[in-house]
Amino acid sequence: MEATIRRPLAKTSLTVIFLLLLALGLFIVTRDYIDSNSANMMIAGNSRQIMNPQSIESAPKTLKYYPLNCSLGNLSRSTCPANYYPSTKFLQPENGNKSSSCPDYFRWMYEDLSAWRETGITKEMVMNGRPMAHFRLVILRGRVYVEKYREVFQSRDIFTIWGILQLLRRYPGKVPDLELMFDCSDRPSIRKGLNNNPALFRYCGDSSSVEILFPDWSFWGWPEINIEPWEVLSKGIAEGTKRRSWMQKEPYAYWKGNPTVNPRRKDLLRCNVSPKQDWNARVYAHDWKREERQGFKNSDLSTQCTHRYKVYVEGVGWSVSEKYIMACDSMTLLVNPHYYEFFSRSLMPLQHYWPIKDYDMCPSIKFAVDWGNTHQQEAEAIGKAGSSFIQQDLKMDNVYDYMFHVLNLYAKLLKYKPTAPEGAVEICSESIACPAEGFKKKCLSESMVEGFVDSNPCTMAPPYDPVSFQSLLRKKDESMKKVEALEKEYGERGHMGKN
């Protein structure tokens, strides 16, 4: 009887001991894993997943993760890690060389770089851009060095540099060594026909300038006016458009902004409804200083898709608001612009937007709204085509690929080997993000590229040949003339009829 009792007890004891040892082992492994990650912190307060570098191979094949290391340096400035990127064995895409085709607006970068097609870009040409530049940036073996020349309005330079750093995290080892000058102003400054054309990057250009266009800072956030990074904001605007169908939206043209920066915006205020005249426009002056004091409660762009028509008019020069306005599925009424940004030259009148005269604005807006309310299906289609262009062709994957291609084409034109300028400071994601606070920290966190993608950038189409380029310009011109003819007929009849 004793033997039959002792066997189960002995077997039970062994089982208990085994389970205790297993639990102890799991505790030690878990503790070591947590300890190994404690030094590799992300931005304070960031909710993004923290991953140990050893877990890179288990990450999704489309994205290889690596965290920031904010344990280096002090609270005011973080030191750039010695080994910033993961092992080079992860840099070759597992998906081969297949990639999607780039959006058509990429082809305009050939035009932007055409001034140096025959001569290449010399060191002198780069340095000729220094009087206009806010900073000089050098990329050497994937590391970034910056020399600042003058102060920039708000944080444009920081967020532009941050965008370039995120490109390097997305495509490590693929961006060549280069040196560039960058002007963060709202208007172009390099006129055509100069000797030794200065090579200068900026956000916008016009028909008489020679500029190398680059995505603006707001794609990664605009903390001073509480605007989130484009990847987050564009989704919010897309959700906002779903709250009302196009037919349920107010049948008027809507604009809200700062009218003091451009005489044409002051002219637009005159188009507002009054007891004597209704130009079909609902226009609102926006006081950003008051908004800041009130916590930006009236500045949510995702709630401003409530009208069938939205007006875009330039600011000091070109305005970042174009993408925010066109992201709604409202038909964009685009007041004849003087400037263009990197994507806007591929927008076509009557396909993506409705053109508005800049010299006779109020009657032009009234006609556009009357036409749209009479031709509702056509107007809705124009609005949705413009919104689709912005939401799809301008998604951040394409923005990064545009940056990648324009920097690669630019680097191929350089006639010298770049070196880090004396006095330049190395900048990395840690040195910008780790000491950040408040809404700036939130923007940096939301726009940070968590790792490099396991695919190649999109495939560029060749430059326009002379025939196709002239055909493109002629198509745009014919669309503009069609609107002028319709508007003239409307003025002569004094009413809108279906045709």
Overall description:
Helix 4 crosses helix 11. Among the domains are: 141 residues, no CATH class; 189 residues, Rossmann fold, CATH 3.40.50. It is built from 14 helices and 13 strands. With 499 residues, it is of the alpha/beta class. The strands form three sheets. Strands 6-5-4-2-3-12 form a six-stranded mixed beta sheet. Strands 8-7-9-10-11 form a five-stranded parallel beta sheet, sandwiched between helices. It has a two-stranded antiparallel ribbon with strand order 1-13. The N terminus is likely disordered. Strand 2 and strand 3 form a beta hairpin.
Q: Based on Cα principal axes, name the global outline.
A: globular
Secondary structure: number of strands = 13
Distance between the termini: 105 Å
Mean pLDDT value: 83
Q: In CATH, what is the class of the domain at 227-340 and 344-393 and 469-493?
A: Alpha Beta
The major beta sheet can be summarized as:
6 strands, mixed
Oligomerization: single chain
The helix content, as a percent range, equals 25-40%
Number of helices: 14
